[in-house]
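dumping these here so i dont lose them again. two proteins, back to back, each one seq then structure tokens. dont judge the mess
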Amino acid sequence: MRNATDDIRATHFFNRIDLVKQAETTKALEALKNDLQSQGGLDYLFVTAGKTPNGKLHITDEGLDAHFALQCLGRFRCAFELAPLMNDGGGVTIVCAPSQGGSALPTDDIEYLQPENRRKYWLLSAAQRDSLFLDSVLYELGERFDKFAIHHLFPGIVNTNLAANAGFPFPIPQLAGLVLPYIATSAEDYASFVVWNGLCSPEAVKGQGYYAKNERGALLDLRPWSKEFSNRQACIDYAQERIAQAQETRV
């Protein structure tokens, strides 16, 4: 998305991308990068596509945990592959759940695919994994690029079809539909906050650094594990290896 333009003929476009599928994501990102290079780069990137884990391990035809592919690799790829095209003073915003992870990750099996790890895979462990992984790679992205800000935002409770989209069984989606309108932030209101934070918050105005925030916009501290360079690099290495394997192998 380019900043405000005086050209009233400016065009906008919409592309549908399945971030679970690595081959499709590669093709889409390559086309987008070519477009951005010819149009002056990228000012602001917002990545919100994802869903809450439901505790079920589903393997895609590319051999990946489907939830990890969407929630983690999708955000990782958009942020890292488009970062070189970011303009000075811009910002990358990732909506997920910062600083909610556990104490460590098995860096040789972040998807919990090996038998000794698979038995540990359930809703909470997957959610903590997502948080710790994204904290690690986004913090490292901030270390590598100092020309734009990185915002990792925790949305709190937002009134969406989250329970149904995540595949929770009856009656959880139905109950959520009854309760959420009374206790949750509307999707429209939260979207407005995301854009304001990415463009107008003090951290956005500063234009550099990594910032994790809760649903009220307060800064969060990361888990010590994510602050260790070796752990951050291990997460990046794992992600890149699994992306390459997924594009070479279909099961």
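---- next one ----
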Amino acid sequence: MTGVHNHVNFPEELAIRPLLPRDAHSTCDSGDKQQLAFGAEAQLEGIETYGIAGRVWEAAYLVNSYIDHPPTWEFDPPLIDKHLSGHKRVFLELGSGTGIVAAKIAQAAALPGRDLVIATDLPEVCPLLEKNLFVTPKGDSANTQVTLVRPLSWGNYDHAINIVRELKLVDDPSGHEHGCITHIICSDLVYFPELLAPLLRTLLHLTSPPSISIFESQPRVIISYKIRSLSKETPFWLAFGLWFSFEPVIVRKTDANNLLSEWQRFGSDIEGDGDLAFIFVAHRRPESLNWTIPSEDIDLLGGVGAGGTCDKKSDETFETLLLMGLGV
């Protein structure tokens, strides 16, 4: 999300407080490392310096429970496909903020020596990520073999392609095994209307050639999302669904008597304040790789270019999910 008081991370009348987990199964450990980086004191300091990027947001705790959960929980779809379990995985997170989600991926989902976690945000926020991800309570470095921090401003093609090149996804003459982005993680990124088109544009950059090739599987896009203002946020989903197919994650749990619960939308049982929460898993529509991405943000959100035509259009997946009762 920035360091010097950038208007994006310091909206007018900013008045936010640290957020700590309130559910029984918390993946924000009480250990020194977690408290140092993501506890109340750290968030207060982060908010002062980095604005909204310095706070942990609700959807981060939700997606962390998806990444690292009790063995009695079963998800559909799961974070990692079984057929990919033995392959190198590259997790790229957009808008990493404090880095709490990237830290959880590095801890619970990435295999040291094989997998890679890339935490990204505005250049001004990268110092916060480096501080939280790489420094232990004793001042030692940590996670440096698993985690990278890189600048990636939404809508900035150069930032995206620089990461791709670093992973040797482009023009790799060496023949060495290279990284392929397998997961793109987005946690609480759908909020300000002016950022919706840049966010979608970056998702398209990362799922289009040369970021991917016809010989590689499309990255799995995981979006942890809490509804705050449906009227302001819906335009993103109306455009997103034109380029990506997506579905909500559902969960069932085994109780102490070894009885399975019914499937339910993951996030539906933690909405004490009345706001709806989802985790969506998405994949780029194959046919969309032949479409022209419009250069103007207003056109991108309006559906121009989708379907290979220049007229405006929208996708109904998100609204259908709400009407079907998956959002109530």
